[in-house]
Amino acid sequence: MKKIIVAGIGPGSRADMTQAVVESLGRADAVVGYKYYFQFVEPFLKAGCECVDTGMKRERERAEQAFRLAEQQKTVVVISSGDAGIYGMAPLIYEMQRERQSDVEIETLPGISAFQKAASLLGAPIGHDMCIISLSDLMTPWEVIERRIKAAASGDFVTAVYNPKSHGRYWQLYRLQELMLAERRRDTPCGYVRQAGREDESIVLTTLSELDPEEVDMFTVVVIGNSQSYVADGKMITPRGYDLCSQNAPKAEKVGQEIMMESFRTIRGELHRQDYPTDHLWALLHAIHTTADFDMEQLLYSDPQAVATLFNKVKTGELKTIITDVTMVVSGIRKGALQRLGIEARCYLNDERVAAMAAAEGITRTQAGIRLAVEEHPDALFAFGNAPTALMELCELVRKGKARPAGIIAAPVGFVHVRESKHMVKPFRLIPKLIVEGRKGGSNLAATLCNAILTFDDAEQLKPGRDL
Q1: Which of 20, 82, 251, 394 is geometrically suited to a Cys-Cys bond with 114, CB 3.0 to 4.6 A?
Q2: Measured between alpha carbons, how far is 299 from 437 in angstroms, rounded to an integer?
Q3: Residue 278 and residue 150: Cα distance in Å, rounded?
Q4: Residue 162 near residue 134, CB atoms below 8 Å
Q5: pLDDT score, position 242
Q6: How many angstroms separate the CA atoms of 343 and 317, rounded?
Q7: What is the reported pLDDT for 13?
Q8: DSSP at 85
Q9: What pLDDT is stored for residue 294 in this prediction?
Q10: Which residues of the chain fall short of a pLDDT of 70?
Q11: What SS3 class is residue 183?
């Protein structure tokens, strides 16, 4: 009978080989395959079965040999590890049938793929949309592979990685990790399995940022989770759907938080620079998210480690109060964060003493509010989103030694005295500062920069929105 059966023999264990494949091996007149795989199939071959084994990278030679044998009225089984249709021999057999215009009958028998076996050993990581990417650039240009990695990362696909590393291919997995981290949380669950289903099988569960490419070789399959994936009881799990309120998926507890996380990943991917220090990046992402204005990349100034320094002051209890120029800034600071950290946010604009002081001194009400605030909270974090005169007032009080701010957020908006007020802040080198340069600013910006400070411990994981 002129027939070629292309059979996926699974990852290597007899238990993972389908009954259909075992039966096909038992009736084969000849078996063709990579010599390493014959150890897995020899027990099932009938007496007198011809075995044609070849070395690695000899796929076309194997296919030609299979057709020559089949054209001699033999039933030939061509074996591939895993599933023959996934980076296996099946496509080549069908292509060669067309080339030869052969009348040999072809049948394909599926097998358990290495990514399926690896996934089962890790838990249940491929419960939602997923893709497989091979890092071998022998037959696919690296530029194409990189486009596919980026698409998988931005599309939030669970991703299985084949051919992650070899003696000559040492850097590709590092690059994949870099591209994935540009879109995914650092703590995204990640696992890898070496020799899945074989005697020297090993299983490692880690995170995307902690994945060590040096521990991976060509016999390893890497599985990277999506935004919903999580680890429970030592197993990696990806829910079947995007259940954003699921109690089982602690990485995305609320719909609003997940939307904000996705927005931050999008913004980060569109920045002109990707090498900002973490604390400046965290403030910048908040600023752009609030305004949808990528000019913030040029306009937002922050002292080195300003966000980290102010957050540490909050954590140690040194910073207990945030003073704002207008009530809209207070409204924008997340109440959950204030309560969680034991911080008070205050605006003196509606204090009954303000109107009297403003009238008596011939100053604006916001200036008067800052004067009163400094008397009672000289060491607060001061955040300005509207009134340049209030910011200028604070600068004068600092110069006179009456105010010792823990930090200053300078984001007043407008056309009169706005730029000058921000220039006045810059010389205070010992005070951590965040400044929105130029005319742009606003209460929403001042508030979001406060939120960036209060949530800085979420910056490494790129996980905003905890207190929404």
Answers
A1: 82
A2: 5
A3: 22
A4: yes
A5: 66
A6: 9
A7: 85
A8: T
A9: 96
A10: 242-254
A11: coil
Q: Both tokens of residue 244?
A: 């954003």
Q: Which residue type sits at 391?
A: L
**Residues 433, 435: Cα–Cα separation, whole Å:** 6
Q: If you ran DSSP here, which 8-state letter would residue 139 be given?
A: S
Cα distance between residue 311 and residue 453, in whole Å: 5
Instruction: Identify the pLDDT of residue 127.
Output: 94
3-state secondary structure of 19: helix
Among the listed residues 405, 401, 377, the one whose alpha carbon sits nearest the alpha carbon of residue 391: 405
Q: Is 289 a catalytic residue?
A: yes
Closest CA to 258 of 235, 241, 272: 241
**Structure letter (DSSP) for residue 370:** H
Task: Report the C-alpha dihedral over residues 67, 70, 75, 76, rounded to 10 degrees.
Answer: -20
- Look up residue 205 and give its two tokens: 């569960």
Model pLDDT, residue 254: 67
Strand 220-224 to 158-162 pairing: antiparallel
Q: CA-CA distances (angstroms) from residue 399 to 54, 196, 425?
A: 83, 68, 10
| Residue of 289, 377, 417, 423 marked active site | 289
* Predicted pLDDT at 38: 93
402 and 373 in contact (C-beta within 8 Å)? no
The rounded distance, in Å, linking the Cα atoms of 188 and 153 is: 12
Q: Are 325 and 384 spatial neighbours (Cβ–Cβ below 8 Å)?
A: yes
Q: Give the Cα separation of 200 and 460 in Å (integer).
A: 35
Residue 324 to residue 311: CA distance in whole angstroms = 17
Q: Are 376 and 399 in contact (CB under 8 A)?
A: no
Looking at residue 466, its pLDDT comes to 83
In 3D space, the residue among 445, 372, 449 whose CA is nearest the CA of residue 414 turns out to be: 445
